[in-house]
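Researcher: Next sequence.
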Amino acid sequence: MTTPDISQHISRTLRAIDHPARLQILWAIGRGESCVCHLEALFSWRQAYISQHLMALRKAGVLHSRRRGKFVYYRLSDPRWLELIQMAASLTGVSLDAVDSLATASIHLCKCPTCQENEKMLTISVAM
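Model: Next structure:
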């Protein structure tokens, strides 16, 4: 592979995550699997908008998906994607702490089996 080929490949991959919505999705999914309904609850975006970005990320090889009944769950293809986002945030002086607390707070808004189970676990740990 030549240097221009390598540069082209890297550039194409970075363009896949270049959209602000895609970075938000990746940050949310970086903590574990997420379904479309969880992302809807988290960001208050339409399902079609989210699905469009998920498809682009999956096509670029950034995300993997699995189906559980009627729900499709997405996860990072490689945890280093999250590290890349964290590094970019650090380089630009941005803290991502607020995103973490928002992701946890939105679990009760999502009705998928995984989020409902996580909400039960959070409720049990808070009660102890």
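Model: The chain has one domain: 3-127. Strands lie at 34-35, 63-68, 71-76.
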